[in-house]
Design goal:
The protein has one domain. It has seven helices and two strands. Strands 1-2 form a two-stranded antiparallel sheet. α1 packs antiparallel against α2, α2 packs across α4 and α2 crosses α7.
Length: about 170
């Protein structure tokens, strides 16, 4: 099996491609679920790259999806320190990253928060009233957060963190 460094760089390179695709789609008239899917994939791969490089179990990382909520804010906080964010801005960015990371994590169909969050940006799902919902028609919490004032810092730190791991 390839070593941790090779996996970390591989995940980071794919994260960068996913992030660049998200960035290109942001201002286009395409369904929001498609834009968010690329952001979710970029964030997931950034986290996996970080974990491969540090402490994560390689086999587990290849099978699971629920890493963003816990790990992405830590990565972005570290990136903020590396680029010299002022303390107040870094604190706001950290709080925002926690909120947005939880929403981004739920965009994956495999992260349902024990059945409480079936919405995802990839597949239709059925609610408790036998109603089918499509990602195409859904209003995602992440979309509203990405319109906020801290979103720009979040996205900038995310790309910087990805690029730092590409090596």
């Amino acid at each position: 099996m390839a070593d941790r460094t090779a996996w970390a760089v591989g995940y980071a390179r794919q994260a960068r491609a996913d992030f660049e695709t998200y960035d290109q789609l942001r201002d286009l008239a395409v369904p929001e679920c498609h834009k968010l899917q690329f952001l979710q994939m970029a964030c997931e791969k950034l986290v996996k790259s970080h974990l491969c490089a540090n402490e994560g179990n390689l086999a587990d990382l290849q099978k699971s999806h629920a890493y963003i909520t816990k790990t992405l804010p830590v990565i972005l906080r570290r990136q903020g320190v590396l680029v010299g964010l002022r303390e107040g801005l870094a604190r706001n960015a950290g709080h925002f990253a926690k909120r947005l990371s939880a929403e981004i994590d739920c965009l994956s169909p495999s992260v349902t928060r024990e059945g409480r969050r079936l919405d995802n940006c990839e597949y239709p799902w059925e609610d408790g009233n036998s109603q089918i919902h499509l990602p195409l028609d859904w209003s995602f919490g992440a979309t509203q957060l990405l319109l906020g004032p801290s979103a720009r810092t979040f996205l900038k730190l995310t790309l910087l963190a990805i690029n730092r791991l590409v090596v």
